Amino acid sequence: MRLLAAHLHTLRDVVVGTLDHPQSRVSDFYRELGDIFGVPFPPHNRWAGFKSLRTRWNEHISSTLMRPVLIIDEAQEMLASVFSELRMLTSKDFDSRSLLCIVFAGDGRLTERLRQPDLLPLGSRVRRRLVLEHASRDELCACLDHVLDVAGNPGLMSTELKVTLAEHAAGNYRVMMNIADELLAAAAERDLASLDEKLYFDIFQPAQKPTRAVVKKR
Predict the structure, then answer these.
(1) What's the pLDDT at 14?
(2) Which of 14, 59, 88, 114 has the most crowded CB, counting CB atoms within 10 A?
């Protein structure tokens, strides 16, 4: 989502907004949209806000030929009433025109919610669906290479450690980065200039002390 937002912001005439509180009720949802797109929202007058937002979006499309974009993260948390309101808000001319491009992002619950009877009209309007599977080892290693390069220290981790982290991350970027963060903190405490597999095994698989056998004499 960060990559998508960064790319969209580089496009000329594209207005991009991000909804930060998907759990809002309808009234707060309108207030947040008004704040995102610079539309004053009259208190206790949802119709005026509805009309003002649509006018703003329609004028933007007429002048630039580009739809504004709204990105909603954790969309599975949205109320059904807000989903339905969003569908009505962005449709124009008897549903023949769309005033807003919306990107929904969420976990597997989002797909299930869009199959519910009251949300089928919205689900049928989703044009593109991208299901992200578990990341492969090569993808995770490429992510580490990118992060280290951007941080200005591409040689901080050994190649063997990168592979080890990728293999123990269960295909999850967040898990891998959390493990890497723990290693970095441990390396800072030990004043290490680089991170390798030895540090990983010291932290996550410490050697067990041999147990002493007790033999009783009769």
Answers:
(1) 92
(2) 114
Q: Where are the domains of the chain?
A: 2-123, 137-204
**Which pLDDT does position 135 carry in this prediction?**
93
DSSP, collapsed to helix, strand or coil, labels residue 59 as helix
Question: Which CATH number does the domain 2-123 belong to among 3.40.50.300, 3.40.30.10, 3.30.565.10, 2.130.10.10?
Answer: 3.40.50.300
Task: Give me 43's structure tokens.
Answer: 């208190």
pLDDT, average across residues 64-72? 95
**Residues near 114 by Cβ (< 8 Å), separated by ≥ 6?**
120, 122, 123, 126
Of residues 103, 186, 172, 111, the one with CA closest to residue 140: 172
DSSP 107-152: -HHHHHHTTSGGGHHHHTT--------PPPHHHHHHHHHHHHHHHT
Structure-token pair, residue 152: 């200005």
CA distance 87 to 84: 5
The residue among 214, 202, 206, 140 whose CA lies nearest residue 177 is 140
DSSP 195: B
Find the angle CA(101)-CA(127)-CA(14) to the nearest 5 degrees: 25
pTM listed for this prediction: 0.76
